Each structure stands twice: as C-alpha cells, then as structure tokens.
Input
Amino acid sequence: MLKILKIKDQKALDKFYRKLFFYKSFIFKKIYFKVETDYKEIKPITALNIKKRKERITYIYDEACTQIDNHYNNKNICGFKNNKCYVQQKLNNGTINGCCRMCKYQSEKGCKTKNLTCKLFTCSEVEKRCQIITFDDLKILNLLSLRNKMILKSNYFSKREDAINDLYIGSFFVWTIRIIIRLINNFSTLKRKQS
Output
C-alpha cells in the first residue's frame, strides 16, 4: 500500500515532523510513503520505507552523521593548530587532539570510526565561536524511540557498529554493561599506548 504525503509549505513540513512518531508505528508497517513537495528530499521518508528495523536504524544513524559532516564540511570548528584545539592552545598544558585525546579510536588522521554522539559534542569554546548543530536539529532522529535517543546521547567512545547494536538491542541494562566494558577497554588501551 502507498500513502502519498503532500508537503507544500513549512507548516505542512512541521506537521509531518510532528507525526513521525505516528508514522513509524506498527499501523504503518506495511505502508510505503511517497512525498509530493518542492522541498529538497525529505530523508525521514526513505527511513520510513525501510521496514527491517536494523536496516532502518543503520540508515538513520548514517544519515544523521552525513548531515553533521555536511554542516561542518571544510570548517575547523575546534581551531586546530599543531594538533591543539582552541582550549589546549590557550592552556598550553602539553595535551593534544582536543576532546578526542581520551578515545582509542582517535588517530593522527582523525577518528577511525563514525560516532554520532561524539560528532554532536562541542565544548563551550566552540559554541561561542560558531553555529553548531544539535541533537534536535537532526529531524531524522525523531524516528528513533525515546529510549534509543537516550542511549544515543551518551554513547561516547564507541565504534559505529557498537553504537548501532546498542540502538538495535535498545535495553538500558545491556547498554550500561556494554558501555562500562567499552570505557574500561578504552582507558586500558590508552594506558598501554602511553607506556
């Protein structure tokens, strides 16, 4: 079955985003969506048409990362010079690599994985200097459950695959155990690198 959504103005687009919670429910499990609009492609429609849960979560995660990357494309928001961010340049305390210095996935060429939570993190210095993108700006994340949004907001220092699995499992208990193990593993890896 096909449902055609007509979005002709900002009011209709806002209404569509408010109804995303309803459109992702089991009632629309067998319905495919098509949009008639003058707006650029509306990414949540593609996600709504992916009916396998893990594939949908993966699409939402990757699309949100792409939107963040596009927003910050060719911008040095952390002000890196000689591997030191604004804050590290100001403090001149010998640390490098900004907020990422504590992550085992950080390398000389940047992050070796794609972590949505880390991409959304900005320090107060960056927030003063440039327009940042926030969790609420990524409308596609409205397709995640409230529990998944809460898990996603705290999933630092994780590989893309681990973050997607956390969202797929969707259990706070399992996520808490997995994140504790990940943090211990992360810090022990960093300790070995420093030795």
The longest strand covers residues 2-7.
